[in-house]
Design a protein that fits this description.
Blueprint (H helix, E strand, L loop, with lengths): L9 E4 L5 H12 L3 E6 L2 H13 L3 E6 L5 H15 L4 E4 L14 H29 L3 E6 L12 H21 L4 E8 L13 H8 L8 H11 L11 E4 L3 H4 L5
Parallel strand pairs: 1-2, 1-4, 2-3, 4-5, 5-6, 6-7
């Protein structure tokens, strides 16, 4: 990444306490953006902000529920108060609740739908409203998944929400392109994060069934995200980029 590619940009990144979200935030901040990062875990997000600031980035942490519409507005307002504007919004926060379709409980479906869809939809809405007010143009990015493209056992609800986000991005092209706002999605496959590495077999299994011979790193996914919200992708909108080492080309099951 070219140094200071994001100079003058202000971004909100949800679900950024660790994993993919944190790496996106870290790289964007080191690229010159001022960023507001969010996670529901307050100690985690404060630690993340401290790490970014110690590395030389401009970062503000705001703990809260990224699905709550009032809190979403608070994030937008805080970014503007702290940094003067908002130009990029990355809806990375999401929840994965495994379960068989035939016994999947209503409360699990509601939780997945609320964070993955409501949180993403209204972050995009409130960020777009601010960007339009500024007449500045900007970028919105949703975090999808390969499970929005290929069936995966016990992830019917999760996969449904991720496919929906990709359709949302396409729909928003119609409404937001006149304001020079791009809207895209990134769909990671198996990725090594703090959460996935809790499974001792995760890396071994996904290395075996991924054509490139390994799961993605958080750096792999962050690189794709940063490209799509960068000035170099200013004429790319309504698109989805899969980062899975070729897994969706073969769709080998981990089971």
């Amino acid at each position: 990444m070219t140094a200071k590619k994001f100079a003058g940009q202000v971004a909100i990144i949800t679900g950024a306490g660790q994993g993919i979200g944190f790496e996106i935030a870290r790289q964007m901040a080191l690229g010159g953006a001022a960023i507001l990062i969010n996670d529901i875990d307050e100690p985690l997000i404060k630690k993340a902000a401290d790490q970014i600031e110690k590395a030389g980035g401009i970062c503000h942490a705001l703990a809260g529920d990224a699905a709550d519409i009032d809190f979403i507005q608070q994030m937008v307002d805080t970014a503007v108060q702290k940094f003067g504007k908002l130009t990029i919004a990355i809806a990375n926060a999401g929840i994965t609740l495994f379960g068989e379709f035939l016994s999947y409980p209503p409360e699990s479906l509601q939780s997945v739908m609320t964070l993955n869809l409501q949180g993403s939809f209204f972050l995009a809405q409130r960020a777009a409203q601010q960007i339009i007010k500024q007449d500045s143009g900007g970028s919105i990015l949703f975090m999808s998944s390969v499970t929005g493209h290929q069936a995966h056992k016990n992830l019917a609800a999760y996969g449904m929400t991720k496919a929906a986000l990709e359709m949302l991005a396409k729909n928003l092209v119609v409404e937001l392109s006149p304001y020079q706002i791009t809207v895209n999605t990134v769909a990671p496959g198996a990725t090594l994060t703090e959460r996935t590495l809790e499974d001792a077999d995760y890396k071994k299994v996904w290395s075996r069934i991924t054509p490139m011979g390994r799961p993605a790193s958080v750096e792999d996914v962050a690189a794709a995200v940063l490209f799509l919200v960068s000035p170099g992708a200013g004429h790319i909108t309504g698109q989805n980029l899969i980062i899975d080492g070729g897994w969706t080309a073969v769709s080998a099951s981990p089971y």
